[in-house]
Input
Amino acid sequence: MPAAAVELVSTDPVERVRRLKREPGRDLWLIGGAGLARSLHTEIDRLVVKLAPLTIGAGVPLFSREAEFNPAVWDLTDHHALAGGALFLTYDRTRPQDHPTP
Output
């Protein structure tokens, strides 16, 4: 990746992501970083979750332990299984207008 593609942000990450989403271009990726994911929870449109056939007894929550209770509904839109048993599960955020309440 060229260094020009990296941007360090010291301001509000939510506002920066909102501005980037309004610009033309490709998708934004967040890999790792539960604390940042917690901050950006409302801005995340797609999750790609890797489920590996390995248990370690402990781990890092997806959105960090300090995340507030803020339920979101996700639709499974793609999945891929590797020969070794790992699964890649792709979920898109369900918007309220996609599933209106009765």
